[in-house]
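Aim 2 progress update. The chain analyzed this quarter is reproduced below.
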Amino acid sequence: MYLPLHDPLFWARYTFAHEGEAGSGRLGDLAAQLDDDFGDLDDGDADFGSIEVEFTIGAGCRLMLDFCLELDHHELGILVPGLTEPDQLGWDDLARWHPHALRWSELESLCRAVDGERHPGAALALLCRFTAIFEDDDVEAATAAVEAAYRSLRPAGWTGYWPTAADWLARADLRGQSVTWYTNGAGHWWARQTGDNDVDFCSIRQGSDRFPHEALRTALRAATR
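Predicted structure tokens:
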């Protein structure tokens, strides 16, 4: 299926700007086009336009992004040797979201392996919504990379709405939100959030055995070879 990476309407839907999230104030005339292109869906609709994108890391490891613009639901999975189906890393929607799947350093390593000399490019632009920024991250470097990734896809001469690193950071910034990271002897990283905070750490990586720690570790090893 065609992936419209150079279409501002696609990015407005994919980043939920159409639902009032970061960047919505810049939509302008696109807001009306979004209403026209994505009207109310009938319960009998059989095809909701789900798209699956595969990101090849190497050594048989892949990230699988499955998203449906009409349903505002995006899911990230991981597939490594030994698995027959992708394990779920996280998902984002407008109901019960758990998008904080990856640390910035992990995302950077994986996207460098996927895009190679084109990094930062399409992989980072699409997958940055599944990471968050914490106190030990280089925020300036992260935002510069995300901005470059978005810019690499922006059509020449286009001056209307386009996602920015500031939009991303508005959703991804968890600095000062009482999130503490831990690691064990196997090299698995998980986090916990404590107390009352302005932003919730929404991740199956927090106090859950559902997160595919070993699969991610395998993919990260492949990415850095």
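The CA atoms of residues 30 and 183 lie 45 Å apart. Confidence is low (pLDDT under 50) at residues 39-48. These observations will guide the mutagenesis experiments scheduled for the next reporting period.
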